[in-house]
Design brief:
alpha/beta, TIM Barrel, 2 domains, two-stranded antiparallel sheet, binds 2-acetamido-2-deoxy-beta-D-glucopyranose, PLC-like_Pdiesterase_TIM-brl, signal, PI-PLC X domain-containing protein At5g67130-like, phosphoric diester hydrolase activity
Length: 354
């Protein structure tokens, strides 16, 4: 190639990249970017090497279905983004003085998760150091090396969010190992969350619709808590999850395309005496480098599979790891699809606006 031709080429490619470049908050979904600030609101600059080269703007927030449409339908007519092991956050300092040796499942703190539209948190609660702690542990026991933080810290973040956002509802799903009598009641009380408690007696037990979200908001009953310990319904008035919800297998067993088996504790997915449906979609070992692929098209495919398995019911909750990682729309698009299907039979909630 002669010099002239090279110059033309270089000039052309410079022009091309200048023409293509966006910055200062005007880059759209999947546009190349170099920092979060380049991307439009609701997007951030992210690299998913499995799906595209370089960094591009991908979604970082949900569409608020209540604000886009309205909140006048029963709670079970909406879908909510759920973070699996919401408390197992990368970079969380040790609170025991002993370095932690365990996996993490999320990167944002609880406040950021809630601000980005997460509305359901999966937390593992343990008796530890005379208190309730959140641990990523085994054998039902928390250790210094598996302890994340005292539950009260996380619950106070939820309290702050509910207090600052008086029309939002948060669901907490506990894998519960707390044996201390009224241990959970105490920590929820100490965190100031009892004032938002949705009472057990208003939860439908035979597949009926839930109360209207607008009524839940008007009554300020905006915190739903489910435990995995059956006896706590009787002893503490805390809902036993499996009386109200069906759930598919979590971990690797829930990631086989075309299959949506119930997890052991759950009734079969098509049991319509439970009005809420939760879909788990994350591998047993949380590798964040591949989470962007899991949280993309494969997730939406699984939602369709689980719709069939649940007797033609769309999921109300979708639980993922590293919720903001995707190749574009990710878990946020999955939620738009679910809310669209639930609210108007469309594959995106934006299509419900007329
Ligand atoms: C959560 O993270 C944000 C951003 O780093 C930070 O400003 C905020 O203080 C954190 N909140 C808590 C409760 O850790
Ligand atoms: C599905 O539920 C049944 C009981 O209803 C249980 O015996 C079975 O183990 C569950 N299936 C799976 C795959 O966990
Ligand atoms: C609320 O939104 C749903 C879904 O789009 C719609 O069917 C319903 O009519 C709306 N209700 C009100 C009161 O606007």
């Amino acid at each position: 190639m002669d010099l002239r031709a090279s110059l033309v080429l270089i000039t052309a490619s410079l022009l091309f990249s200048v023409a293509k470049a966006c910055s200062n908050g005007d880059c759209k979904l999947l546009d190349p970017c170099s920092s979060d600030g380049d991307c439009q609101a609701g997007l951030y600059c992210f690299s998913c090497p499995l799906e595209f080269s370089g960094r591009r703007c991908v979604r970082s927030t949900t569409t608020n279905q209540f604000k886009l449409l309205n909140n006048t339908l029963p709670f079970n007519k909406y879908a909510f983004l759920t973070t699996h092991n919401a408390y197992a956050i990368e970079g969380e300092p040790s609170h025991t003085g002993v370095p932690r040796i365990t996996f993490t499942n999320q990167e944002d703190n609880i406040t950021q998760q809630l601000n980005n539209g997460v509305r359901s948190l999966m937390l593992d609660t343990y008796d530890f150091q005379g208190d309730v702690w959140l641990c990523h542990s085994y054998g039902g026991k928390c250790y210094d090396v598996t302890a994340f933080e005292p539950a009260i810290d996380t619950l106070k973040e939820i309290e702050a969010f509910l207090s600052a956002n008086p029309t939002e509802i948060v669901t907490v799903i506990l894998e519960d190992y707390v044996q201390a009598p009224k241990g959970l009641t105490k920590v929820f009380t100490d965190a100031g969350l009892i004032k938002y408690w949705f009472p057990l007696k208003n939860m439908p037990k035979n597949g009926q619709d839930w109360p209207l979200v607008s009524d839940m908001v008007a009554n300020n009953q905006r915190l739903l808590v489910f435990t995995s310990i059956m006896s706590k319904e009787e002893s503490e008035g805390i809902a036993y999850q499996w009386n109200y919800m069906v759930e598919n297998q979590y971990g690797d067993g829930g990631m086989h395309a075309g299959n949506c088996p119930n997890r052991t504790e759950s009734s079969p997915l098509d049991d319509r005496t439970k009005s809420l449906v939760l879909v788990n979609y994350f591998p047993t070992i949380p590798f964040k480098q591949i989470a962007c692929e899991h949280n993309s098209a494969n997730l939406i495919n699984m939602l369709h599979t689980c719709f069939g398995a649940a007797g033609n019911r769309w999921a109300n909750f979708v639980a993922v790891n590293f919720y903001k990682r995707s190749d574009g729309g990710g878990a946020f698009q999955a939620l738009d699809t679910l809310n669209g299907e639930l609210l108007c039979g469309c594959d995106d909630v934006h299509a419900c606006v007329n």
